[in-house]
Amino acid sequence: MNETPIDLSVVITSYDTREYLRDCLRSIADSAGIESYEVWVVDNDSRDGSPEMVRDEFPWVHLLVNSENLGFARANNLALSRTRGRYVLLLNPDTRLRSGTLAEMIELMESRPEVGLAGIKLLREDGAMDRACRRGFPTPWNSLGRFLHLDRLFPRSRLFGGYNLTFADPDGEYEVDAIVGAFMFFRREVLEEVGLLDESFFMFGEDLDWCYRVRARDWKVLYVGSKDILHVKGASVRKNQAQMNSHFHRAMLIFHRKHLEQRYPFFVNWLVSCGIGLRWLFKWCLIHIRRRPRTAGPGRGPGTLAE
User: Beta 115-123 vs 220-231: how paired, if at all?
Assistant: First the structure.
């Protein structure tokens, strides 16, 4: 690792998201108030010309090109092990930053030494908040409330809204269990203490796992609702919904077995495994039904998996 310190390292993993990636990199280049930073883009075998675009239009970006899709955790780890910033940001390619966001996050972290990891509000293209930007851990009860949509029926309820924190002020600032991997801003010390992302997660779940490990080291995970960025969400996921459905539900099973299984008796863990399997099957059926050609009526694309 280079010994010369800089303020910030930004790490982006991309898979067939050329146009979104271009906008994301432009928003980073337009950021104000940062004295020194570096950007790493890890390309997961894109076939849409993403690497060529980065080389031609953003020659200052450090580009790593994989010959296969290594998944989110492995790809990010390739760059994380090379970064040299005092702070590090994991950022999705389908996001766009506001000009002062990065400098403001550094200022916030400087003023809150107990915070190891921070996330902000993510807004979708229609202006709605991406509910995954602040979360509780997927305990059996939190997961049940989410899977049965009880959090949508009773959004003010702490009992049913524990997964997406639907009862909490979206514009507030408070400690949470977890934030989403689309924007994870953390200290160098946290990376050194906690280690890299768990590569047993191919896609989905590695952010929850990392937040769990960060909190286990007594660092706070902070949600900052006063700051926001645009998040298109699912730009690469939509290309293979069936495969991503499998990755998502496998990640939930890995997380439960790694961190939660020891807390519960056998029958609860058995119900969790059955519930994850049934939900995978339900989503699989929906995906294939939506793929069928329709003779009349407007089409409706599939939604994203992880909220």
Answer: parallel
Tell me, what's the pLDDT at 238?
A: 60
Whole-angstrom Cα distance, residue 147 to residue 169?
Answer: 22
Reading the block at residue 70, the tokens are 């290594």
Per-domain residue ranges of the chain: 6-135+176-235, 239-291
Residues 228-278: tens digit of each pLDDT: 999 987 655 566 777 878 878 899 999 999 999 999 999 898 999 998 888
Cβ-contact 166, 93 below 8 angstroms: no
| DSSP letter string, the chain | ---S-EEEEEEEEESS-HHHHHHHHHHHHT--S-SSEEEEEEEES-SSSHHHHHHHH-TTSEEEEESS---HHHHHHHHHTT--EEEEEEE-TTEE--TTHHHHHHHHHHH-TTEEEEEEEEE-TTS-B-GGGSB----HHHHHHHHTTHHHHSTT-TTT-TTTTTTS-TT-EEE-SB--TTEEEEEHHHHHHH-S--TT-SSSSHHHHHHHHHHHTT-EEEEEEEEEEEE---TTGGGGHHHHHHHHHHHHHHHIIIIIGGGS-HHHHHHHHHHHHHHHHHHHHHHHHHHS--SSS-------S--
Nearest to 119 by CA among 221, 48, 24: 221
Cα separation of 178 and 132, whole Å?
Answer: 9
* 182 closest CA partner among 162, 161, 203, 163: 203
Q: What is the pLDDT of residue 295?
A: 44
Residue found by looking up tokens 């694309």 in the block: 301
CATH architecture label of 6-135+176-235: Alpha-Beta Complex (3.90)
Averaged pLDDT for residues 1-15? 85
